[in-house]
Amino acid sequence: DLAAREADTALVCMQSEDEGNTYRMIFDSTNEASVFAKHLKLRQAMLSAMNREAMVEVLGFGAGLGRRFLLPTASFAYDESLPSYWFDLEQARQLVQEVLAEDPSVAGPDGTIPVTLTAIDRAIDKAQAEMIKQMADAVGFEVTIEILERAAWVAKLVRIPGQEGGSFEFGTMRNPVAPTDPDLEWRTFYYSTGGFNVGHLADPAYDDLIDEAAATYDLEARAALYRQLAQLAYDEVWYGFLWQQNWNWAFTDNLEGYEEPVTNRWRFDDTWLEEE
């Protein structure tokens, strides 16, 4: 409905570039049968095959942006100079061909690499899965899409006490993101006991850096440690960042003083209605 709301002259539309629903790709680091766990180049190829700008246009109706990193642009630890994965069709194809030459056993009967994508049963995630399949198949993969309802998806990907989680090859997930403390993002997804550590990482290198960054109030020192984490995450590629569906708001044109709420917590104490 965004285009119609923006065309309504009685409304003011506000769109965030720092907050929204961010879509990620995950590879299971512990699935020994997965070609992605065996070959770094295939993880790199998959992320290089993703046209993030097309996802923004098709899935987000233009209300969003392609994501390169875990942290949003407004985070004090965001650093665009760090290496990242972006759409590079030739690079993706080359990486796939290199793996096929190194390990012909990963190929199916037709010479492509069969993989299974696990996604949650939600309209936008299913549409995204179809786009991922189209992009990945174009560089030498053969993607089978597995759609699970929420409880089954969580049971398969998320490891919680008493439930280790099943094995998967690669999947997608959606989470809200805002420029809060970077510890929240890094500890949730990369820490060995993180609540959404769906890559099933158990690496002291991540844990030690996350804990060290959380133990000081020095923002420059913390930012430097988060840059080290971002470099490590880039080198190992257990998570891939796709795109962000920006949060947006529409309100009557006589509403004054309204500002974007951080983490979607509403504040109206400095907001008022002008008489028309």
Outline of the structure:
This protein is α/β, with parallel strands linked by helices and 276 residues long. It is built from ten helices and eight strands.
Reading the helices and strands in chain order gives HEHHHEHEHEHEHHHEEE
How many DSSP H or I helices?
Answer: 10
Major sheet: 6 strands, mixed
Name the strands of the widest sheet in spatial order: 2-6-1-5-3-4
Proportion of residues in helical segments: 25-40%
Mean pLDDT: 93
Residue share in β-strands = 15-25%
Descriptive report:
The protein has a six-stranded mixed beta sheet. A two-stranded antiparallel ribbon has the order 7-8. It is of the alpha/beta class and 276 residues long. It has helices spanning 2-7, 35-38, 40-48, 52-59, 89-102, 123-137, 150-157, 182-189, 204-214, 219-236, and strands spanning 11-27, 64-66, 113-120, 141-148, 170-177, 239-252, 255-256, 272-273. Helix 3 (40-48) runs antiparallel to helix 5. The longest helix has 18 residues, at 219-236. Strand 3 (113-120), helix 6 and strand 4 (141-148) form a beta-alpha-beta unit. It contains ten helices and eight strands. The mean pLDDT is 93. The protein is globular and about 70 Å long. Helix content is 37%, strand content 22%.
Topology readout:
Elements lengths: L1 H6 L3 E17 L7 H4 L1 H9 L3 H8 L4 E3 L22 H14 L10 E8 L2 H15 L3 E8 L1 H8 L12 E8 L4 H8 L14 H11 L4 H18 L2 E14 L2 E2 L15 E2 L3
Parallel strand pairs: 3-4, 3-5
Antiparallel strand pairs: 1-5, 1-6, 2-6, 7-8
Helix pairs in contact: 3-5, 9-10
